[in-house]
Predict the 3D structure of the following.
Amino acid sequence: MTVLIGDKEYFPTVSEIKYEGRDSDNPFAFKWYDADRIVAGKTMKEWLRFSGCYWHTFCGQGHDPFGPGPQRFEWNNPKDARGRAAAKMDAAFEFFTKMQLPYYCFHDTDLIDEEDSTVSEFEEKIQFITDIAQKKQDESGIKLLWGTSNLFSNPRYMNGAGTNPHFPTLARAGAQLKVAMDATMKLNGENYVFWGGREGYITLLNTKMEREQENFARWLHMAKDYMRGQGWNGTFFIEPKPMEPTKHQYDFDTATVAGFLQKYDLSTDDFKVNIEVNHATLASHTFQHELQVAADNNMLGSVDANRGDYQNSWDTDQFPNNINETTEAMLVFLEAGGLQGGGVNFDAKTRRESTDMEDIFIGHIGGMDTFARSLIIADDILTKSKYTEMRNTRYETFETGQGKDFVEGKLSIEQLAEIGKAVGEPEQISGKQELFENIVNQYI
Ligand code: XLS
Ligand code: NI
Ligand code: NI
């Protein structure tokens, strides 16, 4: 990958990050991510399709509810919005290329400051910055994994966007949605994301839930019809999250999204999910559970990689570093044959106190190494251990005889009851959880 440096080098102390292997002490080298190494028949780069995100890495400066962020970015120095946006894009592409990230993602408002723009003014600004992005993509070979619209930060969307109870506000959001979809298509974005943002409610006292959900389904149909009509054949991803900012989000988890799509006649050929690790844990699920539900519903589209914190219960979006958790997830990932259209996007931020410019490199190196290493371990478990055989054995009574008849729908409840009577007290069979867990740790 050619490292792109604009008018100014923003990260002069870091050069291109290369694979050096696990014995390297260089904090600016990959210990595990070796882009061209083949694992389970494909390169790591092809399996993982890593992506950098604009919002946490180049926009957020570490603010929290108690104060503004301490992180200082030189690309924010220019006085006008266009100057800042161009500088930020120079910094972003310098980072992506130095980091060997083949993809990136953005919200429309990450690219350029919205300020008090009308829709037309915002559209012009987006034209300006996407012209630059197009050039940067061509020069570097980096591609847009997905685009999305920020329809949750601006106070006008405080009651939602596609679920807003006030039609003029919903229409205003629709205008912005169209700008973001156009920008995504212009940049050959491979996918388009809907994260629910404020699409949910806080109190039922002021909310007609069914009206809001029907409107949201209409909104998704319109978006899909528009982009398909333009000849775009990427995938739409819905990103489940159970809470934050609203109390009840309409896209709580993957199972909820699956039911919603089915109810409102939205096909999983068009819509899949973008599963974020910390959103899974907020929903009291594991990351691997969400991946499995998605895979079983033909919806395993993409991943927002990060992790939560055991001691608190909000979306901390930390960089992934838990090999055990990621290995269990990569078992599901590999058995499902990988992601459908998406990639592994680092929706993760360095901690508020990590104020050195090089810290964002260190965070991404750790995240990429965690996924790469877990991919290798999961492949070892699947190909070298008794894991698959042990799981299959638990279900083998459904493979032949009456168990098979049951699976094939050949038994009535009367016949099932006859068999059950004849069985007597069935044999007690251990679930062997500890053995499964030990196998995972053995291969780590
Ligand atoms: C917020 C979401 C957001 C989406 C994109 O919690 O993760 O960052 O990924 O809108
Ligand atoms: Ni996300
Ligand atoms: Ni998050």
Notes: Residues 359-384 form the longest helix (26 residues).
